[in-house]
Design a protein that fits this description.
Blueprint (H helix, E strand, L loop, with lengths): L2 H13 L8 E6 L5 E16 L4 E12 H6 L17 E5 L5 E12 L4 E8 L2
Antiparallel strand pairs: 1-2, 1-4, 2-3, 3-6, 4-5, 5-6
């Protein structure tokens, strides 16, 4: 096995390790309404700040998944859909307190050499 295959396997093991690693349950649903469960890394950061006398709220969420796991599940790489008339890729995961969150993929950054895709998300209702 070459260095890239080793790196992809290591990234998969780290992302999907729910005991000592970053693993977190994530559900991904494609625009064609095909869903699959994965284990990966997720973030959901909320902050407020004052911008010239107006309060601005910002919520930044993301996930990181192994591309090897996506391929094994028969899923394509998620991507941002920028059309209001097209169905987006939808991501669901709970926070540390068990509160469910539902997001759409805003931007997708796959690293095909390392075997990981990072998706930047926005809240989806």
């Amino acid at each position: 096995m070459g260095i890239r295959e080793t790196a992809a396997a290591d990234i998969k093991a780290i992302l999907e390790d729910k005991t000592t690693g970053f693993g977190w349950d994530i559900t991904l649903t494609s625009p064609s309404n095909v869903s699959a469960a994965f284990v990966g890394f997720s973030t959901d950061v909320y902050r407020e700040y004052d911008d010239d006398d107006r309060l601005v709220s910002l919520r930044a969420a993301s996930i990181a998944l192994s591309t090897l796991s996506l391929t094994a599940a028969g899923m394509a790489l998620p991507e941002g859909i920028h059309s209001e008339t097209s169905r987006p890729w939808v991501v669901e995961f709970a926070d540390i307190e068990g509160n469910a969150g539902k997001f759409k993929v805003k931007e997708s950054n796959p690293d095909r050499a390392a075997g990981v895709v990072v998706c930047h998300l926005e809240e989806y209702k």
